[in-house]
Design a protein that fits this description.
Elements: H1 3-12, H2 34-42, E1 50-56, E2 58-59, E3 71-72, H3 77-97, E4 102-110, H4 118-131, E5 133-144, H5 151-159, E6 164-170, H6 174-179, H7 186-198, E7 204-210, H8 217-230, E8 234-239, H9 261-277, E9 281-283, E10 287-289, H10 294-300, E11 305-307, E12 310-312, E13 319-322, E14 327-329, E15 333-337, H11 341-349, E16 355-360, H12 363-378, E17 380-382, H13 389-409, E18 413-416, E19 419-422, H14 430-435
Parallel strand pairs: 1-4, 1-13, 2-3, 4-5, 5-6, 6-7, 7-8
Antiparallel strand pairs: 8-10, 9-10, 11-12, 14-15, 15-16, 17-19, 18-19
Amino acid sequence: MQNNMRDLLLKYDRPVPRYTSYPTAPHFRDSPEQEEIKSWLHAIPQEKSVSLYIHVPFCRHLCSYCGCHTKVVNEEKPISAYLETVKQEIRLAAKAIGRQQKVSHIHFGGGTPNFAPTKDLESLLSLIADEFTLADKPVIAMEMDPRILHKDKVHSLVKLGVNRASLGVQDFHPDVQQAINRVQPYEFVQQCVEWLRAEGINSINFDMIYGLPLQTPEKIRANMEKLKTLKPERVALFGYAHVPWFKPHQKKLEEFPLPGTLERFEMAEQAREDLIALGYVPIGIDHFALPEDDLAVAYKEHRLHRNFQGYTTDTEDTLIGFGQTAISDYGAAYVQNTAMNREYRETVEQSRFPAIKACLLTKEDIYRRAVIGQVMCYGRVDLYDVAEGEAWAEKTWGSAEKALKGYAADGLVTLGDKAAEITETGRPLTRLVASAFDAYLQTAETEQTPRHARAV
């Protein structure tokens, strides 16, 4: 690593958002009225398709690195009861819409969605088919834990329509797995991939993490060698976010040496280099896809989108989230559900939406969201080319110019007339550059408790 790069990483490694939304979740403040939520649902254009997200906040084991909202349970009964409540919430939304809205994408996240009983998933998807109109070939994606996946379950999920799978792999090394409380030998993952492919699922994503305890650049390279033998269509390479003030169980990882900024950078670059060598197209800050995969095609054709699931080909204007902590995106408003199980259940049983936070977007917010989306997806933006650019370009550039000029002086970006493009030097700090356009962000100097993961 060159000394200049080393200095830049140490200088700029500060907490910044991942920008899966703008404004970001810490800035959701309003408590939405029930009638407001109903009006947003009813206002969805009839001719538009929507996407649905179902959050399943249950796991068999708690991984020490996890930053998700989830709960460990040892039996299926609590999951079945929870999904019954989710079904009630779906009925509430469908009633508010007032017609059978078309659905193009359904995403099951968690937690561990494949932990849910098949009969309950079947009942839930049947309800969606009754209350909505499914597209001819809807994308139905599910996050899966290889440790509790088995052949019969894969067969059942495919029969239900699941056609995309995301496997939580993270790392293949036994010592790292022991440290993070996620022991799953390579053979487990290999078997899962074989089952999925045999059932016709040919869109498989691996979630991989760098920056975990006991990881080294050499181990990252070994991870990529093992990944090579399984050849998933997509890879999401995330930097471990150590936020023990938010997730106290992460303190367990402090018993082990945690990689520092420079080591994390070397790991990320090692993985990137190896994945590109394996034929993957780098997409945004942390995704990779084989050239023929839909994500790579969308990137090439400038149709890439970023939402709460990360980089996606899903460009629907409306995402309706169901379940605890789920976030809905109505275009001009975000709404987030409560994280509390009892509150969630009791509110829905009263035929009320379980929303606890909301964020009403101004026209300026919508413009800045589009600007940040361009930076996060493509590493460049011309403020005049973004919708409403004539109205908001001057103000947005004015608030970002000081930071951008500083980044330009350090070689992170090149600047034009209300335009910025991230250089190869600045690529690892894309989130930092995007934050220049964030009107809400508190700087690291003024934050008492950081609310975001560090930039590197």
